[in-house]
């Protein structure tokens, strides 16, 4: 997108810059009507007019430090999820910013074992439909070498009444909602819950069916996307992508970033995201890791890569996404991938946004000075949060904490589909 006008931007404050390694989410962004809503590292929720970027309202953080890490439009309201001592979900009136209700997920999953980031109760994801909001929250504990999680998935009515909850001693990482189903992806399963994917009845919270990659270790599923007659799954257990039929039968399996020998090391990368759109499937992989050691100078050939597959499970395209993507955004024919640090190479040129066509691959890219950590898309409207970063072996601060507002170019397949 270098030949196109630069995105519009507005500052969000001056938090401490990110460092070489990923420290987890601390920002969120969502589109609702004519508003862009941002959740910040300091716990504020700010709404801007999409056209003018003038601030419409601001809901300041209340109580202890808590970053807003999840946002979702919910009818005429906005839901904000925290990483903080209470792991709160807050509901704001979209037009005014008036708080309607809030709920502390720590009431179900417990208070933090330590007052440090990784131990804080964490709202991992929020998805909504016309009547309900579905919230996944988790809390981590450690006792010597023993690691454990407590988690809850809850359904809330628009007045904050909780309709049902589904508890597990595992770590939910993402949700997806379609027709009468709610899919829950569990990233780590160190306890009695040993299923990486649970598909629930959205009305009652009971289990429709469950699935697991049946691999060794605690790592299970990185992301899930429901389709009309099943689901797409990014498997952390075996570094593959799956197309499942309803009930969990495997229709096809795609090797994405499976174990590969580079020099004298065996490397892998986790598939962290999956999207379904326009009859196609898109998987996005993350960082390189070595099997027998923590550090490695080698890179897996399929790290930080988006892969596109057709309905038959045949790979159609692949594309480099530059760096680590903490999330992706999907709308219509577009998949938008934000690029954050590449902590092994610390290459600042990878920072930015990639716009992909689900069917055909790369459409455009946008370079940024800082890292892009949160993104939302609605039609051709793309919004993102850029954060400043300082790499440990460089010392230069790049970028700023700001909201970016851009337009996604139309892919040829999107133009053709709209013309029919």
From TrEMBL:
InterPro entries: PQQ_rpt_dom (IPR002372), Quinoprotein_ADH-like_sf (IPR011047), WD40/YVTN_repeat-like_dom_sf (IPR015943). Pfam families: PQQ_2. Residues 1-26 are annotated as: Disordered. Residues 86-337 form the Pyrrolo-quinoline quinone repeat domain. SUPFAM superfamilies: Quinoprotein alcohol dehydrogenase-like. This is Tup1 like transcriptional repressor.
């Amino acid at each position: 997108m270098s030949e196109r006008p630069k995105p519009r931007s507005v500052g969000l404050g001056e938090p401490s810059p990110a460092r070489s390694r990923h420290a987890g989410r601390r920002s969120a962004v969502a589109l609702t009507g004519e508003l862009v809503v941002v959740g910040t590292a300091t716990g504020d929720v700010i709404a801007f007019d999409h056209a003018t970027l003038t601030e419409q309202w601001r809901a300041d953080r209340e109580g202890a430090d808590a970053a807003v890490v999840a946002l979702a439009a919910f009818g005429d309201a906005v839901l904000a999820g925290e990483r903080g001592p209470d792991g709160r979900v807050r509901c704001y009136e979209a037009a005014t910013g008036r708080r309607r209700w809030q709920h502390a997920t720590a009431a179900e999953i417990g208070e933090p074992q330590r007052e440090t980031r990784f131990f804080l109760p964490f709202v991992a994801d929020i998805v909504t439909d016309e009547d309900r909001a579905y919230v996944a929250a988790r809390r981590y504990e450690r006792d010597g070498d023993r690691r454990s999680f407590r988690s809850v998935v809850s359904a809330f009515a628009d007045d904050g009444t909780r309709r049902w909850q589904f508890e597990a001693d595992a770590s939910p990482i993402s949700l997806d909602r379609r027709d009468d189903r709610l899919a829950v992806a569990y990233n780590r399963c160190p306890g009695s819950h040993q299923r990486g994917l649970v598909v629930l009845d959205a009305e009652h919270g009971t289990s429709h069916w469950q699935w697991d990659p049946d691999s060794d270790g605690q790592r299970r599923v990185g992301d899930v996307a429901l389709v009309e007659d099943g689901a797409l799954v990014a498997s952390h257990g075996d570094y593959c992508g799956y197309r499942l039929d309803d009930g969990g039968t495997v229709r096809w399996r795609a090797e994405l970033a499976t174990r590969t020998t580079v020099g004298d090391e065996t490397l892998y990368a986790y598939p962290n995201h999956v999207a379904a759109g326009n009859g196609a499937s898109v998987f996005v992989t993350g960082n390189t890791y070595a099997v027998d050691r923590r550090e490695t100078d080698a890179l897996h050939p399929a790290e930080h890569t988006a892969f596109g597959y057709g309905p038959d499970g045949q790979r159609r395209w692949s594309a480099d996404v530059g760096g680590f993507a903490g999330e992706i955004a999907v709308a219509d024919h577009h998949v938008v991938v934000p690029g954050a640090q590449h902590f092994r190479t610390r290459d600042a040129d990878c920072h930015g946004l990639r716009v992909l066509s689900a069917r055909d691959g790369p459409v455009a890219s946008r370079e940024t000075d800082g890292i892009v950590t949160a993104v939302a898309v609605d039609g051709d409207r793309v919004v993102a949060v850029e954060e400043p970063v300082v790499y440990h072996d460089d010392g230069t601060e790049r970028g700023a904490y700001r909201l970016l507002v851009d337009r996604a170019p139309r892919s040829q397949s999107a133009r053709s589909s709209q013309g029919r």
